[in-house]
């Protein structure tokens, strides 16, 4: 079992990055009035939240024979203390909140590491709709915040590198924005922001995106631009600097993202590629069906063609009985005119039930549709808002109306939107902080944690669970 002490070096590095961040966000300074009061940690002695009645049932019995490490001693998690390091056999899913988009770190049961997206949307106080507060503050870039977080938690797992870096789609709140004033990478000819900053500072083995090596699979709201050119430079640099393998995500496969360190010990772990670029797994073998118009028709549609969001990389992770879904910014926007714009419904049909899901497209309007939610029947939904309109009230009502009353966690939210959400806000388990799902060896049960995001110390604010996997 690997359970090395976490290096303290990363804490020292944090202070050194702040100045760079200040230069990057000159226009964001001054929006401090939007920053809500920091939530005080709950009492350190708070007992484990029993949830809504389904927590702690542990009724699945045993470890399911899925190869879990029966000898693992799970670290004790306490409110007010630093969230403890991953130990072998656990599956950790860290939704890192920067207030500027999405970034999720996965530490898989054998120590394989994967970062999905690295937010870094540049935006100032004049953006409409307004942004959520950046975390921990405006003086540090989201790329730096993610880099520090990832370095802290991958240290005991994968020798300080990422096995996989995955980009769901090319929007700035997942890739990062480009600015001519962003700092140049020390060894590269690209500028660092969001994913390119994280990738410049943390080595990785494999980069997977939705359309390598073409980058030209044009969507209605994407075109060649400086951000894409910069990203392509970064991709090419990584092949030389790290010897990185770069490949496109292929829907239908269950052997593209695999355990790299000890796969035979965890036969109950798989990642199934569900969808990308309108191609959706059929549920049979690795077969896919194309839900989009043919490319010639697609291009002729111009601005009515497929949006970048519905091209997002989508996958389902299974660890024993535990199942988790992540689908980038999938949505059903525009389905009344073009039925194929509802990518969620075919994705839901083939995904089936899960325990935990990341909400599509930050929980905004015209996402997380009824048929999709009823197919997944999540017990917990993780939402990562970064705009004032996220999450949307109707979207939340659909989630809460599900028969199993899923628990809803948000990693950020504006004060104005809390008002808009009205009484449903009381149904949220958390509205601010990094969110961590820790699945115990074998996948039979899991707990969910909210971590403080007003500094970079990763202290636990709230504990929910444990919950039995379905
Ligand atoms: Zn997004």
Can you walk me through this structure?
The chain is globular. The two termini are 27 Å apart. Strand 5, helix 5 and strand 6 form a beta-alpha-beta unit. The strands form 2 sheets. It has a 9-stranded mixed sheet with strand order 6-5-4-3-2-1-16-17-18, with helices on one face. 20% of the residues lie in helices and 19% in strands. It has helices at 9-24, 142-158, 172-175, 195-201, 226-241, 295-300, 344-351, 370-376, 393-400, 415-421, and strands at residues 91-95, 104-107, 113-116, 162-166, 204-209, 245-248, 269-276, 279-281, 288-290, 314-319, 322-326, 356-358, 380-383, 407-410, 428-430, 434-439, 445-451, 460-468. The model is unreliable at 1-69 (pLDDT under 50). By secondary structure, it is an alpha/beta fold. The protein binds zinc ion (ZN). Zinc ion is lined by residues 101, 171, 173-174, 329, 362. Zinc ion binds at residues 101, 171, 173-174, 329, 362.
Question: What is the alpha-carbon Rg in Å?
Answer: 21 Å
How are the strands ordered across the major sheet? 6-5-4-3-2-1-16-17-18
Number of strands: 18
How many DSSP helices? 10
The H-and-E topology, N to C, reads as HEEEHEHHEHEEEEHEEHEHEHEHEEEE
Largest sheet: 9 strands, mixed
Average pLDDT rating = 85
Beta-strand residue percentage: 15-25%
C-alpha termini separation = 27 Å
């Amino acid at each position: 079992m690997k359970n090395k002490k976490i290096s303290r070096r990363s804490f020292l590095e944090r202070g050194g990055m702040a100045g760079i961040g200040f230069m990057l966000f000159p226009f964001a300074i001054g929006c401090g009035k939007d920053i809500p009061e920091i939530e005080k940690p709950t009492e350190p002695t708070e007992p484990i939240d029993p949830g809504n009645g389904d927590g702690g049932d542990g009724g699945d019995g045993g470890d399911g024979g899925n190869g879990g490490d029966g000898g693992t001693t799970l670290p004790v998690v306490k409110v007010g203390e630093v969230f403890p390091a991953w130990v072998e056999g656990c599956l950790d899913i860290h939704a890192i909140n920067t207030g500027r988009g999405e970034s999720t770190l996965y530490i898989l049961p054998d120590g394989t590491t994967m970062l999905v997206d690295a937010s870094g949307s540049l935006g100032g106080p004049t953006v409409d709709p307004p942004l959520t507060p950046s975390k921990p503050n405006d003086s540090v870039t989201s790329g730096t915040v993610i880099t520090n977080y990832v370095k802290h938690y991958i240290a005991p797992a994968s020798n300080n590198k990422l096995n996989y870096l995955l980009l769901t789609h090319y929007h700035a709140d997942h890739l990062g924005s480009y600015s001519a004033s962003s700092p140049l990478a020390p060894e590269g000819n690209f500028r660092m922001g969001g994913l390119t900053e994280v990738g410049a500072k943390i080595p990785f083995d494999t980069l997977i995106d939705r359309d390598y090596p073409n980058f030209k699979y044009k969507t209605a709201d994407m075109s060649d631009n400086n951000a894409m050119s910069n990203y392509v430079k970064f991709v090419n640099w990584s092949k030389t600097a790290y010897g990185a393998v770069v490949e496109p995500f292929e829907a239908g496969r269950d052997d593209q993202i695999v355990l790299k360190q000890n796969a035979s010990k965890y036969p109950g772990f798989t990642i199934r590629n569900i969808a990308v670029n309108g191609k959706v797994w059929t549920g049979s073998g690795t077969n896919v069906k194309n839900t989009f118009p043919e490319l010639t028709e697609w291009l002729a549609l111009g601005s009515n063609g497929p949006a970048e969001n519905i091209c997002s990389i989508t996958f389902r992770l299974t660890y024993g009985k535990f199942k988790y879904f992540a689908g980038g910014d999938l949505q059903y926007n525009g389905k009344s005119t073009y039925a194929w714009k509802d990518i969620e419904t075919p994705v839901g049909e083939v995904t089936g039930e899960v325990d935990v899901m990341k909400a599509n497209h930050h929980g905004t309007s015209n996402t997380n549709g009824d048929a999709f939610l009823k197919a997944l029947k999540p017990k917990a939904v993780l939402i990562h808002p970064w705009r004032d309109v996220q999450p949307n009230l109707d979207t939340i009502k659909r989630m809460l109306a599900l028969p199993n009353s899923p628990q809803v966690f948000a990693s950020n939210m504006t004060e104005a939107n809390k008002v808009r959400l009205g009484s449903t806000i009381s149904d949220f388990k958390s509205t601010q902080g990094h969110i961590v799902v820790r699945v115990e060896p074998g996948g039979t049960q899991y707990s969910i944690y909210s971590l403080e995001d007003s500094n970079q110390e990763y202290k636990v604010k709230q504990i929910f669970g444990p919950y039995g996997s379905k």
